[in-house]
RNA sequence: AGCUCCUUAGUUCAACGGAUAGAACAAAAGUUUCCUAAACUUUAGAUACAGGUUCGAUUCCUGUAGGAGCUACCA
């Protein structure tokens, strides 16, 4: 399947019959447009093996290919690059072939397909989601889609950090200041409501610290001895000892938050198959530590704390269990990982979508699991991503300069509205269609803008730029799709017989060449966990298409076979744009 | 201090070690008998610096400069 594969076989058989050599590493690439040809074989790597002059080898291969393939018409040689001319007929046939393939580029899931857990979002329940979560969520969701397209079974999950001192902080503030108010009574979304009290806590705390410092305490003491902090700690103790009313309040406030999160997830168009709660898992992991300790993989310090020595691996010593026997973060992660494998024995791998500030943590985690001898530790992947910067400075939650996810979503929609209105896009649309379109465009802009960037790089996010209907943006892709659909509505029903075509435009050829690449792109995106590959691919396709149909029309085409061909080509392009956007989680409207 | 990641046109992003480093936005000039000009065509513009590895380096290695992050009995 695919031109590269066909060619590879041919070239391999050339080496087999001429040199009795098996050659695996053959490098094909699309011929650069300034040279004559369609596909290029890079000869340099071969010369090292064969020790034959470059040109001789090229001519030999070229002649062989022209003789043995009806589709390779001619070749030329430019400094180590063998450019092959492929007949138009081949491309036409290939288009007709892939045209018939449903879910082109996707690999069918099977009963025994590998099962991968993808973990993403994983919020704290004391405050709403912010822009950083948005990148996390979009990445995790898209990577899940891509893995599924690669034939994997995927379980989308998140670990909800629903316990700990930070939760107690918003709880104590609610107790002190909320007057028994609820999201319902105040008309505020649940997570926003709880977040308000977390902010309130910090305000009060800071004031109290300041007061204490004025009275002569040093900062450290003041932080620890502020009344509200002590109350929060007390609440944590009560929670841990299972105090009924504390537990009830905790449960109630968390429910508020979950309702709020659900609305945000819904707006982003993402979902989860299962949830893990930290309150269920935070005690896990001790067993593993003991196991490792008994195998002498870990060591105990004088105070009774347990550590692992990773200095041989170039890292540090790492604490695994506190001197009082309680867990730390990594203990939980060790426990959660092994629990998942226990729960789901057929599990084949896990992807953790977590920011790059935790690169070290995951390095350590995977290393320890490996030391413990779990065979699945090889198929763990930390999907690490960079920070999202804003034009007006960095976003740091400590400095209060966070962009709230809900607010951002709302802003994207209203920008979409503003831009659409200013270019007269929505005339003749009813209100309901309008608002759904604004949502589609706004979210498309947001998602595309974030996903088109390599995950590990930082992003500069400018809401205004991303809603541009021009250039490398989500709305431009959506618009092009809608335009192709509109074009097809006009020509689709023409009855035309199919004949073979011998001549097509070189631009049509490059569109088909690009389409033929699609399965490879999906495959590679799955291997590198990078939706950016898909995004850039789709954009290129859109560009190819626009450049072509600007100068060549369907309606003006006299030859009926060519007309049919062009309709098919347009349909397939729309098809692939659609499925590419699907992988990114972007909706495409038929009309906009 | 040590470790990790990043640095590409004015800006935002591309480029399995491959040919003359691609796009888009912004700037300058042009193009409309057919689908949605939100398009298309053309021009100008970049690999932080210094070495090395090789047929070939934005990519790999070493060093320098700049940015970020991690090195918590926090999560």
Strand and helix map with partners:
Elements: H1 3-19, E1 28-30, E2 39-42, H2 44-50, H3 54-68, E3 72-78, E4 81-86, H4 88-99, E5 115-119, H5 131-149, E6 153-160, H6 165-177, H7 183-186, H8 190-214, H9 219-225, H10 227-240, H11 244-268, E7 274-277, H12 278-281, H13 286-294, E8 298-300, E9 306-309, E10 317-321, H14 329-343, E11 347-355, H15 359-371, E12 380-385, E13 388-389, H16 405-422, H17 431-451, E14 459-460, H18 463-466, H19 474-491, H20 506-528, H21 531-551, H22 560-584
Parallel strand pairs: 5-6, 5-11, 6-7, 11-12, 13-14
Antiparallel strand pairs: 1-2, 2-4, 3-4, 8-9, 9-10
The structure holds one RNA strand of 75 nucleotides.
Protein model, in words:
About 1% of the residues have low confidence. The protein contains 22 helices and 14 strands. It has 592 residues and is an alpha/beta fold. The strands form four sheets. The protein has a five-stranded parallel β-sheet with strand order 7-6-5-11-12, sandwiched between helices. It has a four-stranded antiparallel β-sheet with strand order 1-2-4-3. Helix 6 packs across helix 8 and helix 20 runs antiparallel to helix 21. The protein binds one RNA strand of 75 nucleotides through helix 2, helix 15, strand 14, helix 19 and helix 21.
């Amino acid at each position: 399947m695919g031109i590269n594969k066909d060619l590879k076989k041919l070239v391999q058989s050339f080496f087999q019959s001429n040199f009795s050599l098996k050659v695996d590493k053959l490098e094909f690439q699309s011929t650069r447009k300034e040279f004559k040809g369609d596909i290029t074989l890079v000869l340099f790597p071969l010369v090292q093996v064969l020790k034959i002059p470059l040109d001789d080898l090229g001519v030999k291969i070229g002649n062989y290919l022209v003789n043995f393939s009806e589709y390779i018409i001619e070749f030329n040689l430019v400094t180590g690059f063998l450019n092959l001319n492929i007949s138009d007929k081949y491309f036409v046939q290939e288009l007709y072939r892939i045209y018939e393939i449903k879910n082109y580029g996707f690999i069918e899931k099977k009963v025994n397909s590998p099962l991968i857990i993808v973990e993403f979002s994983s919020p704290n329940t004391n405050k709403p989601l912010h822009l950083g979560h948005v990148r996390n969520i979009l990445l995790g969701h898209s990577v899940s889609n891509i893995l599924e397209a690669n034939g994997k079974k995927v379980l989308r999950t998140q670990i909800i950090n629903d316990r700990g001192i930070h939760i107690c902080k918003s709880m104590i503030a609610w107790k002190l200041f909320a007057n028994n108010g609820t999201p319902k009574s105040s008309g505020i979304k649940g997570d926003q409501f709880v977040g308000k009290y977390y902010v309130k806590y910090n305000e009060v705390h800071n004031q109290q610290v300041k007061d204490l410092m004025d009275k002569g305490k040093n900062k450290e003491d003041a932080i620890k001895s502020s009344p509200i902090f002590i109350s929060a700690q007390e609440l944590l103790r009560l929670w841990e000892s299972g105090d009924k009313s504390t537990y009830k309040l905790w449960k109630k406030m968390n429910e508020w938050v979950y309702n709020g999160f659900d609305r945000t997830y819904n707006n982003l168009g993402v979902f989860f198959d299962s949830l893990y709660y930290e309150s269920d898992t935070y005690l896990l992991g001790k067993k593993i530590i003991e196991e490792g300790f008994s195998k002498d993989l870990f060591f105990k310090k004088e105070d009774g704390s347990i550590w692992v020595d990773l200095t041989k691996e170039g890292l540090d010593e790492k604490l695994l269990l506190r001197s009082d026997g309680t867990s730390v973060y990594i203990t939980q992660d060790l426990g959660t990982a092994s629990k998942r494998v226990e729960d789901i024995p057929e599990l084949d791998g896990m992807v953790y979508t977590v920011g790059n500030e935790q690169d070290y943590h995951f390095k350590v985690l995977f290393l320890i699991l490996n030391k413990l001898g779990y065979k699945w530790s090889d198929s763990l992947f930390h999907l690490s991503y960079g920070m999202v910067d804003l034009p007006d400075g960095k976003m740091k939650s400590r400095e209060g300069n966070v962009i709230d996810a809900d607010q951002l979503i709302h802003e994207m929609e209203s920008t979409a509205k503003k831009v659409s209105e200013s270019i007269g896009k929505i005339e003749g649309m009813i209100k309901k269609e309008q608002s759904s379109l604004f949502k589609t465009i706004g979210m498309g802009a947001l998602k595309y803008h974030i996903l088109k960037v390599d995950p590990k790089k930082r992003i500069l996010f400018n809401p205004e730029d991303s809603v541009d209907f021009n250039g490398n943006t989500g709305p431009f892709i959506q618009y092009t799709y809608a335009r192709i659909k509109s074009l097809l509505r006009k020509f689709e029903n023409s009855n035309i017989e199919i004949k073979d075509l011998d001549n097509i435009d070189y631009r049509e050829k490059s569109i088909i060449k690009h389409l033929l690449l699609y399965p490879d792109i999906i495959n590679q995106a799955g291997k590198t966990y990078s939706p950016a590959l898909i995004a850039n691919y789709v954009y290129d396709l859109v560009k190819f298409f626009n450049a072509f149909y600007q100068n060549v029309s369907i309606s003006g085409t006299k030859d009926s076979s060519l007309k049919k061909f062009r309709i098919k080509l347009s349909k397939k392009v729309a098809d692939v744009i659609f499925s590419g956007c699907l992988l990114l989680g972007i909706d495409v409207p038929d009309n906009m």
